[in-house]
What we know:
Layout: H1 4-18, E1 87-95, H2 100-111, E2 116-119, H3 121-126, H4 128-136, E3 140-143, H5 156-174, E4 180-181, H6 190-198, E5 202-203, H7 218-228, E6 234-238, H8 245-260, E7 264-265
Parallel strand pairs: 1-2, 1-6, 1-7, 2-3, 4-5
The chain binds zinc ion.
Amino acid sequence: MLSHHQLVTRRLLLAVAGLGLLSMSGCEFPAVDGGDGAAPSAAPGTPTPPSAPASPATSTGPAPTPLPPQPRSLSNPLFSLAADDRLVALTLDDGPDPVHTPLVLDILHKYGIRATFFLIGENAARQPALVREIARQGHHIANHTWTHPDLRSVTETQIRDELRRTSDLLGEATGRTPTWFRAPGGDWSDVSLQVCADLGMRPMGWSVDPQDWSRPGTSLITTRVLAAIGPGSIVLNHDGGGDRSQTIAALETYLPVLLDEGYRFTAPQ
Ligand SMILES: [Zn+2]
């Protein structure tokens, strides 16, 4: 029987593979992992024949239970919206930033677009007025940990601390506790998904990553987004973590193009 860890890893891999999302780490901070994120410790060579006859030692009941019950409301990250029309979500990570976040807000206001901001707790603690302003303008405030660590290399206690402390701060600042969580770099682990569920949040990934954090140039960010976007896409951009002027120029370029093409933007509930 597969362990819980193996099940979670397998579900993650299936979700990622199914969406073709073998993209790189999406954040500028310790972006050490350039792979697909879900480093499997589940050995692929473990033979577990799915249709093997019940072993005599366990065949006491009439019908074997296929899988153990799932703990709480554990779920895989949301990588795209269930939309068959041109409904998409724009997400902005690593803020709030006193210089770049207000510029992003101005662009979103200009085009009437609502977005989801995955804030880093320690940044939010330094910019409480900006946190309130993001929320006041109708955007969603979401949890992106307190210090942006690689959650695969810290203890469960630290993960719980990172997430709870950030949710508490954002809840106090805005009057609304975050309902979405994103792991730094998209580097999920089964423990972080469990803590996320324990704290009443859902995990959100992305399906369009123009790698804007690496500052590849405004035109490349723009063309990557326009080439990859489709119905239900979740777009990853960054308003914090460094000089985001390329991202801001790209937003100013690609958002009106997408609106002209009939795309609508939502901030998932
Ligand atoms: Zn990040």
